From TrEMBL:
<keyword id="KW-0472">Membrane</keyword>
<feature type="transmembrane region" description="Helical">
    <location>
        <begin position="254"/>
        <end position="277"/>
    </location>
</feature>
<feature type="transmembrane region" description="Helical">
    <location>
        <begin position="91"/>
        <end position="116"/>
    </location>
</feature>
<keyword id="KW-0812">Transmembrane</keyword>
<dbReference type="Pfam" id="PF00528">
    <property type="entry name" value="BPD_transp_1"/>
</dbReference>
<comment type="similarity">
    <text>Belongs to the binding-protein-dependent transport system permease family.</text>
</comment>
<feature type="domain" description="ABC transmembrane type-1">
    <location>
        <begin position="92"/>
        <end position="277"/>
    </location>
</feature>
<dbReference type="InterPro" id="IPR050366">
    <property type="entry name" value="BP-dependent_transpt_permease"/>
</dbReference>
<dbReference type="InterPro" id="IPR035906">
    <property type="entry name" value="MetI-like_sf"/>
</dbReference>
<dbReference type="InterPro" id="IPR000515">
    <property type="entry name" value="MetI-like"/>
</dbReference>
<feature type="transmembrane region" description="Helical">
    <location>
        <begin position="31"/>
        <end position="50"/>
    </location>
</feature>
<protein>
    <submittedName>
        <fullName>ABC transporter permease</fullName>
    </submittedName>
</protein>
<keyword id="KW-1003">Cell membrane</keyword>
<keyword id="KW-1133">Transmembrane helix</keyword>
<keyword id="KW-0813">Transport</keyword>
Amino acid sequence: MTERQLTMTMLPEKHASSLVLRLVGSTRVRIGFMLMLAVVALAIAGPFFAPYGPTELVGVPFDIPQRDFLLGTDTLGRDVLSRFLWGGRSLVWMSLAATAIALTLATTLGMSAAYFKGRVDDAIMRLIDLKLAFPSIVVALLFVTMFGSGKLLLVLLVGISLAPTGARVVRGAALSVVGREFVQHAQAIGVPSYRILLRDVLPNITSPLLVEVGLRLMWAISALAGLNFLGYGIQSPEADWGLMINENRNALSIQPWAVLAPVAAIAIFTIGGNIFAEGIARVVGRTDKEEAQ
């Protein structure tokens, strides 16, 4: 390996090291991460502290908070605290899975469009334009109506619906990488395309991908909670935060905790993701600017 090629290889590593240090030192990134981590911890550990089962009838409907029911009861007389502690697991793992699907599709489509160009780029971009022409919630409702509201289907639908916007971002970032000398050198010596994409292109677009993680997660939470609230997602009697809001919204003035508790959890998770994404965007922008100087 020549000195020039060695320098080309070391630049992304130096950039990544500097980026990680700045991310760890960013107050916004830490705050956003801690908010999301708190909700994830609640979703994972919550069921172990629930005083009752999530579907257990323990009192009269919409009973006020008291010693046996710290947050009162819901529309069927189930303990609100227990359903709240049980209700976060589905939303957390489904939103994380949908985000992973969205980023995988976005990265694959975006890098392929930027690298192969020509007809491949045109075909991918027109396919993305076609998807963006239809509102994501309408597409999700259509498929849920036809095939049912299975969790895996919801995750797949939300992941696919979030991929097109991310693919555009990835394509824009990859276009500035595929024209560099080290990529052209790899092409000239016959390195397979998939290796070039994974080893040369992908490591150089990690900055925008980090930003997309927070943004896609935030939209995945909103989409899944919205589908559950509309009744097209997780079905009763299973515990879910979005479903809890829908079930108890008519008695908000009588028993507000059945609605306020899941609303607060969803809001904290979403706000944390927003702060996390904004913090990453600021750090990435500052790091890229300094590296360019």
